[in-house]
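ok trying again, last paste got cut off:
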Amino acid sequence: MDSIANRASGKSWAVWSYPAHFLEIGSQATEQFFSMPVESVCPWLQLLWVGYYKLPDVALELKELGGVDVGYGELPFIMVAFTEDEEKTFKALLPFLREHGYYEGYWMEESDLKSLYPGINPLARGGAVLPYLQVEPYRYTLGLAQAAEKMGAIFRQGEAVGFRHQGSKITSATLATGTEVEGDVFVVAMGPWSGRGASCLGREMPITLNREQCLRMEVAENFPPYALVSSAGGTIIPKVDGSVILGNSGGFDLQQSFDVSLITEKAKMTLIENAIEILPSLSEAKLVEHRGDFEGWSPPPNTIQPVIGRMPDWDNAYIATRFGTLGMMMSLGTGRVMAELIINGGKPPARFKTMMDVRWSPKFGQVVKSGFCS
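nice, full thing came through this time. structure:
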């Protein structure tokens, strides 16, 4: 509406998790809202894997075609154990993944961890290491747009407020200025605001709003390219440019409307305190940017359950939304799936059919028709 990557797409951590890790997360019963039951996340692992494996090549392509260095880099995540119980839990993750056929990841001993991060909390006992990836979010999104422009795409800026149609075919999108933007196919991909787009087409789209915040810090010396995360959720993410992002893994801050501040002093202090608990030297770091925005989650209990497919009753209207905190991780896979859906007139390719057959629960009041997959 305002500019490319002006909202959450330019403010995220932009970290690609090792997809197999979500199997372990989903297997643990928890009362936290952020829990992802196995039946919720398992069908979507393919969407994550597509992007995970494509990202290195895409980063190179965007640099060559779009002229943008997206800040790609490997970013192993260290799940740091500070107690005996945490050490036992984190060590158990590795054989669990191997039992499911995923062999990447290893245990970093205490001596190696403290050699890597000499200033880490002395209670650290080692940690489980998983192979994550990263980019710089604003540059990644801008790079995709610029590469698309060089391939013939045209971008229009404005606030979409409705559609015009002839029978079951959408003919144009209407902007707040009154301008009509004509097209052959329309995709509602408005993040947390997708419910408004769906309502313009006569469909209810339940979306839970979560406010996510993080801090960008300037540190005196470059950190090693390994992220640190504690069981409390404190997360320290060294970026390729030398800055450091402080986040909160697994936290949630649910909102009832869009009419709230995107950043809060309470969140800032929590992020700093959790990070200093892991790495005390961060008390000397300089705060460069406090940023935040909304994520669009699926209603509970399956808070990570995207909606992708052709919308019922419309010949040429599609939707891609409700990716929760995994939006950027699912971006490349979603682009691939949406392209094939549109080419095939809404019919999913065979290799994604099972994933696309996951349905909304009827208790949310949604009648699911053929071709509208969630």
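cool. The CA atoms of residues 217 and 287 lie 5 Å apart. Residues 159-207+302-373 form a domain with the FAD/NAD(P)-binding domain fold (CATH 3.50.50.60).
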